[in-house]
């Protein structure tokens, strides 16, 4: 491996694609209608949605760039996305996900399709290519698994049933009260029990073909929970999300925040970075604003937390208030999701010259996912339970004009916080030689997975670095490095308190903990939160959403100005 691939990050000057305005107390204004803590896609969606109906919203982000897990960073003339690798349901302007993106960006965000074969599974020695389109997908399954036609058809029918259940749950979470309870009762009486059983249990009812089950669940890494532990609901949401293909934001993931922020600003609001919220202020049981780390107090009648339930009720909310409303105990009924390792690779040739595809690779040692996760947790030297390889520069049609004659690759694998816990209190970028050695251990192993499938890349890596769950903690304030918020097991979807409106007047929740993980799930949670905040005035938001964006992008215009290297920064630790 080249020296650049093994160098320590210590001593290097951070640089990031800085999106948002740097916080200064004197830059604050008066009369904010709402404050959003955290600029992840859920928080930004809530802020933009409220802005579209005339609300003045302040978004406070502790990181030095906005976007949360949708932000990008750059180093040495390369750019990588930390959490966005592909998005489904945006190919048609009629889909809810696409309409929501167009609504919060005013139509400014563009999308590029990936290859029709957008995902490729390697399960032991078996390979399966996932193809876009419901008919194509079903036909490919039936061709690969003759005799399983009935099971495959029933699987597709059950996915449709789960989709209806999720719609009902979304309404329940925004309505609340007696009406919400009646809706929940009606859903439970009319929908089949398998909706929230484990994925493996449901599929095992349909077939005893373990390889078919492995193929159907080949995207389980998108929730971080093995099929034997995940809710069938999250499995179906992910599978449906990509059923008609996958897409990538033109210009990279940072374009999400970059195109949403102007919508927030047009409503009189702002998105501040370096803005560390210390406490949610409560007076006589009612929210009155937030207190910043520098002691500044900002008043607003509504505070919306996109910081996750553990941060919200365990750190930001006064302990006495959290305990009084039962949130301290409720938080014990859910668990943080798994963390991840991320390898960010740069090469001095174009994606085309290197033969890099617009297809993601999922690599599994075999179909025993739960057992492989347990073995890896007990001993990090065991085989990786899953390895995901993505090629962002090949997916982005604007890449070559912004970064000519270069290419990037990202590798992601599950990781457990416990493996790195002993370095948690060490300073970022200076965690010591043992930590660096462990990172190099993981980097070398993950690179071998890449070379096994792309041998032409051996010896061509110009730059490489690895992030750990501690990186996620440092940059995104998830204390156990959880990538997907809460674990998506069956218990998580039985938590009725995971809803936008809390029992504390003026306090709301947004983001992936409300509904589900992923960009689409967090955006859905963000829009649901905006509806809850508006209450009886929510029809105004629904009318604005139905009307669509005020402007539309020019189809096929992928020309984007490169971001100056002087504004780049952040690297994983």
Task: Give a written overview of the molecule.
Mean pLDDT is 91; it is low at 1-16 and 551-571. The chain has a seven-stranded mixed beta sheet with strand order 9-8-17-18-19-16-20, sandwiched between helices. The two termini are 19 Å apart. It is α/β, with parallel strands linked by helices.
CATH topology of the largest domain: FAD/NAD(P)-binding domain
**CATH class identity of the largest domain:** Alpha Beta
**Fraction in beta strands:** 15-25%
The total tally of domains equals: 3
Helix content: 25-40%
Q: Which spans have pLDDT < 50 for at least 5 consecutive residues?
A: 1-16, 551-571
Give the helix/strand class. alpha/beta
Rough outline: globular
Based on the model shown, name its key terms.
573 residues, alpha/beta, six-stranded parallel β-sheet, FAD/NAD(P)-binding domain, disordered C terminus, disordered N terminus
Quick synopsis:
By secondary structure, this protein is of the alpha/beta class.
Show the helix and strand layout:
Elements: H1 3-6, E1 21-22, E2 34-37, H2 41-51, E3 57-60, E4 72-75, E5 78-81, E6 87-88, H3 96-105, E7 111-113, E8 117-123, E9 126-131, H4 134-144, H5 149-175, H6 177-190, H7 199-206, H8 210-216, H9 232-241, E10 246-249, H10 254-266, E11 270-273, E12 277-283, E13 286-292, E14 297-299, E15 303-305, H11 309-316, H12 319-324, H13 327-330, E16 339-347, H14 351-354, E17 360-364, H15 369-378, E18 387-390, H16 392-395, H17 399-402, E19 407-415, H18 433-453, E20 461-467, H19 469-476, E21 507-509, H20 518-534, H21 538-547
Parallel strand pairs: 1-11, 2-3, 2-15, 3-11, 8-17, 15-21
Antiparallel strand pairs: 4-5, 6-10, 7-10, 8-9, 12-13, 13-14, 16-19, 16-20, 17-18, 18-19
């Amino acid at each position: 491996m080249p020296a650049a691939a093994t160098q320590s990050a210590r001593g290097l000057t951070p640089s990031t694609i800085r999106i948002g305005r740097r916080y200064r107390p004197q830059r604050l204004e008066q009369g904010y209608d709402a404050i959003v803590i955290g600029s992840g896609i859920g928080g930004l969606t809530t802020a933009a949605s409220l802005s579209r109906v005339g609300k003045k919203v302040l978004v406070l982000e502790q990181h030095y760039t906005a976007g949360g897990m949708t932000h990008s960073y750059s180093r040495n003339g390369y750019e990588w996305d930390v959490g966005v690798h592909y998005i489904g349901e945006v190919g048609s302007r009629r889909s809810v996900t696409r309409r929501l993106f167009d609504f919060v960006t005013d139509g400014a965000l563009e999308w590029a399709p990936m290859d029709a074969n957008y995902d490729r599974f390697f399960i032991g020695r078996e390979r399966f290519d996932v193809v876009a389109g419901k008919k194509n997908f079903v036909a490919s399954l039936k061709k690969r698994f003759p005799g399983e036609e009935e099971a495959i058809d029933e699987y597709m029918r059950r996915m449709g049933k789960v989709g209806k259940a999720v719609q009902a749950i979304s309404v329940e979470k925004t309505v609340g009260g007696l009406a919400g309870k009646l809706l929940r009762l009606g859903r439970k009486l009319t929908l089949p029990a398998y909706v929230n059983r484990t994925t493996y249990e449901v599929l095992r009812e349909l077939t005893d073909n373990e390889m078919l089950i492995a193929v159907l669940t080949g995207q389980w890494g998108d929730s971080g929970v093995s099929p034997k532990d995940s809710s069938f609901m999250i499995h179906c949401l992910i599978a449906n999300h990509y059923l008609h293909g996958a897409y990538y934001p033109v210009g990279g993931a940072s374009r999400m925040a970059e195109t949403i922020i102007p919508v927030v600003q047009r409503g009189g609001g702002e998105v501040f970075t370096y803005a560390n919220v210390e406490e949610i202020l409560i007076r006589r049981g009612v929210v009155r604003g937030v207190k910043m780390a520098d002691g500044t107090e900002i008043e607003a009648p509504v505070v919306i937390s996109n910081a996750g339930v553990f941060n919200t009720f365990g750190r930001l909310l006064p302990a006495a208030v959290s305990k009084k409303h039962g949130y301290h105990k409720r938080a014990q009924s859910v668990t943080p999701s798994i963390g991840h390792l991320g390898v960010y690779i740069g090469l001095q040739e174009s994606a085309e010259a290197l033969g890099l595809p617009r297809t993601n690779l999922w690599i599994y040692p075999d179909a025993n996912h739960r057992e492989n996760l347990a073995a890896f947790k007990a001993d990090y030297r065991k085989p990786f339970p899953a390895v995901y390889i993505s090629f962002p520069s090949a997916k982005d049609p604007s890449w070559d004009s912004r970064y000519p004659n270069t290419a990037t690759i990202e590798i992601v694998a599950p990781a457990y916080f416990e493996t790195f816990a002993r370095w948690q209190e060490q300073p970022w970028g200076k965690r010591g030689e043992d930590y660096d050695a462990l990172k190099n251990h993981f980097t070398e192993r993950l690179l071998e997975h890449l070379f096994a499938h792309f041998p032409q890349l051996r010896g061509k890596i110009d730059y490489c670095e690895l992030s750990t769950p501690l990186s996620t903690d440092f940059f995104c304030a998830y204390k156990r490095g959880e990538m997907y918020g809460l674990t998506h097991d069956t218990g998580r979807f039985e938590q009725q308190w995971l809803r936008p409106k809390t029992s504390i007047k003026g306090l709301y929740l947004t983001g992936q903990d409300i509904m589900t993980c992923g960009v689409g799930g967090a955006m859905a949670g963000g829009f649901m939160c905006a509806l809850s905040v508006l209450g009886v005035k929510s029809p105004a938001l629904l009318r604005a959403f139905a009307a669509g964006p005020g402007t539309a992008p020019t189809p096929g215009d992928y020309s984007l100005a490169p971001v100056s290297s002087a504004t780049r920064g952040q690297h994983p630790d």
